[in-house]
């Protein structure tokens, strides 16, 4: 806070200006000089209201409701080396910025131009990374623009607020899964009994919420995925193949539910979203406007919706175009 004071000795008027964040309020105190009795003054001080203070009885101006941008990360905004899809001549390839390091090695990238777009977007909207990654996997990523206030991890199982899990939200998710789905242990038992080490590299459990396999995709039996999907579907689970990973996720565990909660908390007037996989479909359907790249599960199945824009770009170029579309839509 800064305060400036001045005294006009000719008029006897003392002025004081106080500045607060975003608002300036001027208060003027007038002290009249002594007036002889034989010359009474009939002049009145003007009734002045400083321009920065609303007139009595008027409603204060309210800030416009924010725009919420909820985006998947992997193969939507950030890309591994294998997913970059740099089809142009080497001399024409975009400059890349590494945004994730794992085990001392660079892992995920975006173009430098995309990084600039994202940094500007974070100042124009409520940007919410919305990922199937676990919290530990998400926290390896260093996005341009700094750590967002809100992030959604584990496909909606965790809402992070300033990097810390919202315990009430997580507890409500756990209750719903217990009521509506077969337990995770049953899914894991099926995976153990029906998979073969000749094509499965790893069995993983994420946050005690869902399971996934890392597979040799070219060796994956064609009928196994279909059988597993049908079996899991009867028990309230969804099966999805993304790259080299086969995910088994409870149907109520959705990105869209978590995004709606963040939108409620922030009072967002408009929700924008992007994603590339089947696990992103519910997120895209819940948004007011949505985009998907020209690659991924949704592209392979030709998935669409009335408010969805399908991009021609593939790979890291799609991530840059998605950010360009986000900024244009948020500015309207």
3D structure, described in words:
This protein is of the alpha/beta class and 332 residues long. The chain has nine helices and 17 strands. A five-stranded parallel beta sheet has the order 7-4-15-16-17, with helices on both faces. Strand 13 and strand 14 form a beta hairpin. The protein is globular and about 55 Å long. The model is unreliable at 1-60 (pLDDT under 50).
Blueprint of the fold:
Layout: E1 3-8, E2 13-20, E3 23-30, E4 67-71, E5 96-102, E6 105-111, H1 112-121, E7 126-129, H2 135-138, E8 150-153, E9 158-161, E10 164-165, H3 167-180, H4 184-194, E11 200-206, E12 210-215, H5 222-233, E13 237-242, E14 245-250, H6 255-266, E15 270-274, H7 281-286, E16 289-292, H8 297-300, E17 308-310, H9 316-331
Helix pairs in contact: 1-9
Order of strands, main sheet, comes to: 7-4-15-16-17
Identify the overall geometry: globular
User: What sequence of helices (H) and strands (E) makes up the elements?
Assistant: EEEEEEHEHEEEHHEEHEEHEHEHEH
The percent range for strand residues is: 25-35%
- Major pleated sheet: 5 strands, parallel
The N- to C-terminal Cα distance equals: 35 Å
Structural class: alpha/beta
Q: Quote the average pLDDT.
A: 86
Helix proportion: 25-40%
Number of strands: 17
Stretches where pLDDT is under 50 for at least 5 consecutive residues are 1-60
Kindly provide the radius of gyration, computed on alpha-carbon positions and rounded to a whole number of angstroms. Answer: 28 Å
Number of helices: 9
